[in-house]
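Notes continue from the previous slide.

Worked example: a multi-chain complex. Inputs as given:
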Amino acid sequence: MTATLTSTTEAAYFTHLKCKECGAEYEPQAIHVCEYCFGPLEVKYDLNRLATEVSRSSIEAGPQSIWRYRPFLPVTSANPIDVGTGMTPLVKAQRLARRLGLKHLYIKNDAVNMPTLSFKDRVVSVALTRARELGFTTVSCASTGNLANSTAAIAAHAGLDCCVFIPADLEAGKVLGTLIYGPTVMAVEGNYDQVNRLCSEVANTHGWGFVNINLRPYYSEGSKTLGYEVVEQLGWQLPDHIVAPLASGSLFTKIYKGFREFVEVGLVADKPVRCSGAQAVGCSPIAQAYAEGRDFVAPVKPNTIAKSIAIGNPADGVYALDIARKTNGAIAAATDEEIVAGIKLLAETEGIFTETAGGTTIAVLKKLVEAGTIDPEEVTVVYITGNGLKTQEAVQNDIGQPLTIEPKLASFERALERSRTLERLDWQPVLV
Amino acid sequence: MTATLTSTTEAAYFTHLKCKECGAEYEPQAIHVCEYCFGPLEVKYDLNRLATEVSRSSIEAGPQSIWRYRPFLPVTSANPIDVGTGMTPLVKAQRLARRLGLKHLYIKNDAVNMPTLSFKDRVVSVALTRARELGFTTVSCASTGNLANSTAAIAAHAGLDCCVFIPADLEAGKVLGTLIYGPTVMAVEGNYDQVNRLCSEVANTHGWGFVNINLRPYYSEGSKTLGYEVVEQLGWQLPDHIVAPLASGSLFTKIYKGFREFVEVGLVADKPVRCSGAQAVGCSPIAQAYAEGRDFVAPVKPNTIAKSIAIGNPADGVYALDIARKTNGAIAAATDEEIVAGIKLLAETEGIFTETAGGTTIAVLKKLVEAGTIDPEEVTVVYITGNGLKTQEAVQNDIGQPLTIEPKLASFERALERSRTLERLDWQPVLV
């Protein structure tokens, strides 16, 4: 079926779509590319009305989900699809901070986001609400895994038909964590960029709502809530520095947009926020452009364990690059080995088990601290965007094995003695 | 090291431990069994002071975690271990309700609890806070998996040494989801009841804080928050009927205790709440006692895919039995096949992926509706206590496979046609 325009209600504060390149304006339909210059389209809001009609207390009185920020999101429904997404914990990471030599470190933990344990639940909640408003009955996506989980789950909750596209070599947990909700799953023999190109063709021929293609302007706005929530959870203050993973670059630009909107409508006092980004060395087109001082992003062929952020041709790469530079942030990359070490470091110091994307972000945080890029005094927020149970393959050979014992005290005592000996050997200083 | 008594501060409302059988009273130390009659000890509070000093608004002004209910929890610390545990979503399950023929069904979703995706994060947050107050530096547990995940993670966050005990045949996700935090893991060749007996011996000889043995009276109080949160999230009302899984029976009795305490201190209006319990047929000692009208629970040897609730000798079984009977609830059991169907039903209707314990609860919910035990008009709350990503083995043969395609439109079209044909065949009515 084809999309039809639903008129906005009085409650909605978004007004139109606007091309980020040439400024052409469009009705808020299911389109994502400018007809004139092929630039990406972005949602615009009536910020004056927002400044007058939305307050800290009106937000605080809202639901414990992303929908407390509904006036800042591009939907008209009085009842958006609310499965409890968002308002994930902001954890003061004291042990990790001490280990790294920082004083004010926070983890924004979307590894426990509802329902599918990644930040994608935010963007999909918005996209599927808008898809319903525009009359779509089948929803779809091109995904590196987390997005497929989220689209399938939230479509199930909302009773929408669903067909998702993934690269055929994804981690087992991400495939199973999609199939369980009963969608059609297409495993494409190719990398994400090939999946994405195929999906653009299907979007043009089948009239489905692809959350990250023809619904992308609405979808991507959901990531702004990761900015809003941090501001609210810090007691209505901006952080000094953020570190977030870069895949398409969309998340990164939208966190920044969220901060700026809250400043513009007077919800938070303005101050500089440094925005730093993390990539895997095996797929680091934005980090390479940053390092080389380029203002264009050259596509690469991904080869990394961090599959969820392995986008070789990132749609919003240049915008992310621009934000990192103008906020005095940095973009750096971590090797697969450093990514695994990052996952373990976060687990052992804070009790948070993240997937490879989170390991990348922690590894880059560590690099930026060691390089002196992050000041120990800065209030630094690190975005953990997905859960480690979905990428168990990445760590299973690096975490050891349980000690197998008989159900007898003597057997336990022997194993304990053995483990303590091993630990002592581990820690023995090298004799020279 | 040995436990030492820390005196309670003025801020604490808990006063002592009391034997549930003979009523003997004890100082709030690391003990769990009555010296006189071997009955279990339970924490007592100054309910009069609570009624005077705690209000709905004082709770609502608290943190977004279980610690908003701190006056009702057995800790003295001004800064308990708060990793954002609790305040998980209560989801109105409209599609599942329609499928089952209910009108007011809610899912309390601890599959997204912070940090380790099960309700155990609640009890462990309380137990480790109390462990620290009592001077323990090494914490431990006997676990069917989720508890080991939680103890290892929260101990890591708090900087406590940790050694956990699990049955050697646990699901891979639960083992890896413990090892990642860096504790010592003892895999015991035996079932949970054998693990538990071994741990009782170790607790007596090593002076460690076992969250579910010598710290059990404090630990188990954490489950009351699953009662408190539902009351608050329903707009300060009691539900009509709850369905929860039964392993040791502790969770079930503490949800009930939570409801009763809120009534006793005047936070919620009293009315009857029917409490129903779910077990797996392969480990159903409490359901068997219920069915046979017995007031004792005969131990069984577990044999079910629902390993997280496979406790053959449940410590609080008789108390759970008593509550189900006196509240006009019921206790029923589901086969392994029904458990898998329950997991899929919840995923396909609500987009929530739960583990085998949750599948058991959904399967039993369905049975109780079909038997007429649950009235369609009742406000019914189902407790989903853990995440499906930890027990992928249970469903991986029952959810089909992706359709593998080349990155070409024609390949996609052929696969889509094939899948639609299969679907039509699936739905074809049998010709007679």
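Summary box: Chain B touches chain A through 82 residues (CB under 8 Å). The radius of gyration of chain B is 22 Å.
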